[in-house]
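ok so dumb question maybe but i'm new to this and my supervisor (M.) told me to 'just get the structure for Acetolactate synthase small subunit' and walked off. so i did the thing. is this what she meant?? sequence i used:
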Amino acid sequence: MSQLKLKRGSSSHSAYDLRDPHSDIVETHTLAVLVDNEAGVLARVIGLFSGRGYNIESLTVAEIDKAGHTSRITIVTTGTPAVIEQIKAQLGRIVPVHDVHDLTVEGATVERELALFKVAGTGDKRVEAMRLADIFRANVVDSTLTSFVFEITGTPEKVEAFAELMRPLGLVEVARTGVAALSRGTAS
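this is what came out, is it supposed to look like this??
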């Protein structure tokens, strides 16, 4: 497994990173960015992506250390290996950024997302929506005679699979939190 940790513009690559940085294959990577919790930092990080035409698939941010005034930004992005390396290097050069971790290459991760689904339907469609929600371990957090709001937590793939099954049953609206991710084991 490869390990990559960037600190304010410096980088260190493992000798075991066998990916071709010049490949044209588009990959999805989950980046954890530790930053100072101060006004404008998120705008600077997002500006880096928008200014260079990089796409953000998912974005979550929250303060993780009140005493240290530190926040964690989790970004899921796509690009060729060269683009991903460029994104990480440029993030590492932003002054309030302390660390950039590419969780995709650092090893096994735990990724979860929370989503709310509003499904409208009656009769058989309503019964089928409830049956599928039970299979997916989705919770009913609101119910009327003609609709449900389901809450589901899981991998992004699980959330998307649930959405696909709910579409023909009357899916009206979806709200997703974005990916929260951590490395497995004791490494940070």
